[in-house]
Amino acid sequence: MRTSYNNKESSSWANSGNSNLKLGLASSMGKLSIYDLRNTDVAVCEADIGRFIGIRPCTEDPNSCLPVLNFSPDVETQVSLSGFDGNVCIYDVSCTEKFKTIFVHDGHTKLSGEVLCGVTSHIWYKENTVISASDNGGLHCWQFVPDALP
Question: Deepest in the core among 24, 39, 74, 94, taking most CB within 10 A?
């Protein structure tokens, strides 16, 4: 597998902990790819999330825009993504063309009001439960209902 990186772009990866051998790659510009490690020549699913949420290149501090990508421990087709803003997004990656947004947790942004904050990390606790932290000191433990989005 060939990968090229722009010097102003950072990336994150996650390996699924379940029996499916999947690798997820996320760039700081919002390009997401899921690979099956048994065949890394072609991505199983790809999306340009950055285009939809308006990600701009980090010019001041590239380390402030580090994406965090995690696989659900219970549902092999769900991944979570944060690091672009004050949100944590849950996606269904069972498709072959693009990701489907299942849920967006925007609680960090709502609590900080006018102050800009970013989600610095998140981790799955169990099915539909995620713990997330933001750079304004917020720590959230939240559950989501799949298919709650219209």
Answer: 24
